[in-house]
Amino acid sequence: MNEPAKYEEALAQLETIVRKMENNEYTIDELTAQLKTAQQLIKLCRDKLTKTEAELLEEQTKGQ
Amino acid sequence: MSDNRYTLRQLNMRVRDAIEMQMPDEYWVEAELSECRERSGHCYMELIEKDEQTNTPVARASAKCWRQTWMVMQPHFERVTGQPLHAGLKVLLRVYAQYHEAYGFSWIVTDIDPTYTIGDMARKRQEIIRQLKEEGVFDLQRELHIPLFAQRIAVISAAGAAGYGDFCRQLEDNEYGFKFEVTLFPAIMQGEQVEKSIIDALNQIYSVECRTESVEFATASESEQPSVAVANSTLYTLNSKFDCVVIIRGGGATADLSGFDTLALAENVAQFPIPIITGIGHDRDESILDMVSNTRVKTPTAAATLLIDNLRQVLERLNNAQQRISMAGHIIIDARHRIEMLQQRLSTAIERIMTNQKHRLSQIELLLQGYDPQLLLRRGYSITLHHGHAVRDPQQLKAGDEIETRVEKGTIKSIVR
User: Fold this and answer.
1) Which CATH number does B149-313 carry?
2) What residues of chain B lie within 8 A of the CB of A15, using their CB?
3) What pLDDT shows up at residue B226?
4) The complex's ipTM?
5) Does A49 touch chain B (CB under 8 A)?
6) CB contact under 8 A, A53 and B329
7) Is A11 on the interface with B (CB under 8 A)?
8) Looking at the domain B2-126, which fold is it?
9) pLDDT tens string A22-55
10) What is the bridge-based pairing of β-strands B42-50 and B57-65?
């Protein structure tokens, strides 16, 4: 899997996988690999969100 | 010889006669007032003319304005010029000569042209402005910024002035509950002492600033932290005693602003390191003090409003930023939600795919089961094998061949006859 640089890219990639999954576009052999990619993307997105949130909170506290 | 003797009075009378004969008219004369005093309703002045280059007097005479004239002239002059007659002013007077045998020579003033004084004041102001610009200090104050959190205010005002009271009340009663720390540096805000008095007050404010700084430096050098140099510069700005200086006057009877139009005062204000706000209350032309200050407003109340408004703007910016940050928080929450939805869809899809596949497999399995020979045997059918191959046609066999018959519970071996 190519590591997507941006959150939006990761999200778009994730959405594509889910859509294809829902449309039965993957063979059983592909399935595990795609699921693994999807989980990695989810983790990446989540981490990015958590990090951003922490940063925002820090900025907010600074201002008070 | 003795025939030519006079008493002093006699001689003076002759001078008087001569003057009255020779100079019976009234004249307009330009002169500078070097003294100006009112006594028993009359005004006594000293007129002077100075050499423009050397500034030394080249002519001098006393002048008097009798009560009847003075009563009309003084208010008229003050109304037009915004200040009472006082020493240092250039005036254009209508006079006639009077020589009194007992009191000596005097010009008797019958009228004044205040526009001449205004013109002269304007010329002087222009000269001061030109000089300030030449020195490069005219715009210095405007390069400073009133700090965002301007709360520590040094005020230069007459101590008991109504304007100062207004200013303090306005600050205290602000609707946002902002706290201001006001320190008064009393000064004389009217008349000839204005210049010196305000400059003294500015120096006092400046020395308080310096004292704070040196205290900070001393503290810093006592500690042996290697980061002292960095700490110093931060402390300097943080502990600077005052955020801005406010020069106010107001509530006084007259609008004498002449003291505010001097070069020395302008230079001091222009080069002061803290932003100065002026609210010296007048409708006439800007004073030079106003021109060189950081911000000018008309009244002490307006100065207070400006400071409150400054803090209000800061508060608004903070609130705004806070709101936008919390909006960013919402974006995060939405994004989380979206990811969760995707994950949900993903596992639903996977589950469905797996269920479908399993279903398909079991169908195939069932189908296959239909072909299981064991099933036929159970039903009572049998399979006959010859050399491991199913016998489908008796013609395949000949007598003596050994065949195997499979039935549900076992195998029967036979010989063909």
Assistant:
1) 3.40.50.2300
2) 342
3) 39
4) 0.75
5) yes
6) yes
7) yes
8) OB fold (Dihydrolipoamide Acetyltransferase, E2P) (2.40.50)
9) 888 888 888 888 888 988 988 888 888 888 878 8
10) antiparallel
